[in-house]
Write a structure and sequence with these properties.
heterodimer; A: 202 residues; mainly alpha; Rna Polymerase Sigma Factor, Chain: A; 2 domains; 0% strand; B: 204 residues; three-stranded antiparallel sheet; 9 helices; 3 strands; 71% helix
């Protein structure tokens, strides 16, 4: 085989998006396969529920398709990946807000919390270590967990994460640092760390 | 100190950016110089790196033990969405232009109907306009209203006391008319009261 006949063509995200705009379903499937795991795991960490994560993931891709003509890689730092995670984060934030309203509405009526409710959709094979890590991450204030998970699953730069979340770079870095410190404490100390109201909004 | 380092608010943020390898070369060199000169700064970096690695390993292990649903179902679902969107677009492409052209007929037809209506209305009301003298003309004493035929064929005269066709006046009347004004306006009438209006204004 001649060296020149070997295809060196790399199908970038933007290239696949171009094909999707033309109605190429296969290109769409390739793009989903590329981001399925990091996106779903990110949403699972943020929502804490597999079925919610799957629903948000689906909504995210539908949103990608609906707005694919508006996507401009030149104006989006981090390219398609940043755009995709931004959409997913917005969907998660919407859910977070609606859950907050739900919780407020339910307050005083029931003591059953999400943590106490069994989640039939979750396919975790829960061991003690799994639960500890997962629980520690779940106990982080939402903004800190978001930065940590975005960094881990999207691999975006901190500058891009800050841009995505609409906060200063120092704020994003501060949240990351606090998240790391808290996780260290929670994983070494079995006592649940107390989260203050201030931290929830940081 | 370079601009990015100046903008970072604490040692922790500087070290995080350093660990993440997101500092420009100059900044990175500057941080390394600080690490060499300040042992405490080096300890902070070591702690942060340890935290970073521990969290990364914990998450990776947790993920490895936590299976997620196959990506194929999600990919196929998205592929179906793309196919549906393409089918919808095709339908719009095929039926859209015809629909658009039909829609274009409505404003065109409306404009045409409006124009015809305005022309008809103008044509039917034009005579009414002509039959009604403007207020300044109607206010002239002894105004003699004439019809279009007379206007078209008769010389008009207008003075402060009379405006009308000259042939309706006898000589005495004409002389009486001419006395108050040295230069009465006499013009050949056209079709409507514009002429009367003009001469009336001229005399005043």
């Amino acid at each position: 085989m001649k060296a020149s006949s070997i295809s060196t063509h790399v199908e970038t995200d933007e290239f696949l998006l171009g094909l999707i705009r033309q109605g190429d379903a296969t290109a769409g499937e390739k793009l989903v396969l590329r981001y399925h795991e990091p996106l779903l795991r990110y949403l699972m960490r943020v929502t804490g529920k597999l079925h919610l994560a799957e629903e948000l993931q689906q909504q995210t891709w539908v949103s990608v398709l609906q707005h694919v003509d508006k996507f401009n890689p030149a104006s989006t730092g981090g390219g398609f990946k940043a755009w995709l995670f931004r959409i997913a984060t917005n969907k998660a934030n919407d859910l977070w807000r609606s859950k907050g309203r739900e919780r407020t509405a339910m307050k005083g009526l029931t003591h059953i919390t999400d943590d106490q409710t069994s989640d039939a959709g979750t396919q975790f094979q829960a061991t003690q270590d799994d639960v500890r890590v997962r629980d520690a991450i779940a106990r982080l204030p939402e903004p800190q967990r978001q930065v940590l998970m975005l960094r881990y699953y999207s691999g975006l730069k901190f500058v891009e994460i800050a841009d995505m979340l609409g906060c200063p770079l120092n704020t994003a870095l501060g949240r990351m640092h606090k998240a790391l410190s808290k996780l260290r404490n929670m994983l070494t100390d079995p006592q649940p760390a107390t989260v203050t109201a201030d931290e929830v909004t940081q | 100190m370079s601009s990015l380092l100046q903008n970072l608010s604490s040692n922790e943020t500087v070290l995080l950016m350093y660990l993440a390898n997101e500092l420009p070369a100059d900044d990175r060199a500057e941080v390394e110089a600080m690490l060499n000169s300040d042992p405490q700064f080096g300890l902070q970096l070591a702690q942060l790196r340890q935290d970073f690695d521990a969290v990364n390993v914990s998450i990776a292990l947790d993920d490895a033990r936590s299976p997620i649903p196959s990506s194929f179902a999600a990919a196929r679902a998205f592929g179906d969405h793309v196919r549906k969107a393409r089918a919808t677009q095709r339908t719009i492409d095929e039926t859209g232009p015809a629909r658009r052209s039909r829609w274009m007929l409505y404003p065109t037809a409306a404009a045409a109907m409006l124009t015809v209506g305005m022309l008809l209305w103008w044509g039917t009301t034009r005579d009414e306009w002509s039959a009604m003298p403007p207020p300044e003309i109607a206010a002239i004493p002894d105004l003699h209203l004439i019809d279009d035929t007379e206007v078209a064929t008769t010389s008009l005269i207008a003075t402060p006391v009379y405006a009308g066709p000259m042939d309706k006046l006898n000589d005495d009347q004409l002389l009486a008319m001419f006395e108050p004004v040295m230069q009465p306006a006499v013009i050949d009438a056209q079709y409507d009261y514009t002429a009367l209006s003009y001469i009336n204004e001229t005399l005043q």
